[in-house]
Hints:
This protein is mainly β. It contains no helices and 18 strands.
Amino acid sequence: ATNNYGAVFASGNVGIGTTTPSNLLSVYSSSAATMGFTGGGTKDVWSMGYDVTNNRFAIASSSSITSNVRMVIDNTGNVGIGTTSPWGTLAVEKSGLGQPVFQIGDTGSSTPWFLVNEYGNVGIGTTTPSNLLQVYSSSASTLGFSGGATKDVWSMGYDVTNNRFAIASSSSITSNVRMVIDNNGNVGIGTSSPLA
């Protein structure tokens, strides 16, 4: 049965743009089978649905599914955020500078745990990584190495408290210190206070 609004009801399924709905709700268009969302006359319009022309599912901040596209899932299952041509399972791209491309953090925290900036630099504990990988801590910026629960743990990194680079056979950079390079460039092996 068809009502005055163009919807078809068949065996409990609803069809819009089709007389043979195969799902509870089937929407058909030869160019774009989409749904639109708006908050009123002065608000933006968003679209979501099947971009038939480009054979992909898309979400766009526009009344057209092909302009201002924010996310796509292509016909191979690749997801694109910031790109309509995802080159991998998840492709995230950003145009312009000033904002991170990707970050992970805690709700309400202004400093993310992990961040990739617009230059591809990775920051852990910092929002402004100036190197390919930058680790920040106010007390100890370290990397940890372990062989498992019954094995020793080693640490390597910047001992902020003592202003030195250190390697330690411990999860703490300040205990069981095996080698240090102090802020004068002096190297200590077996001592944490090299004289020269």
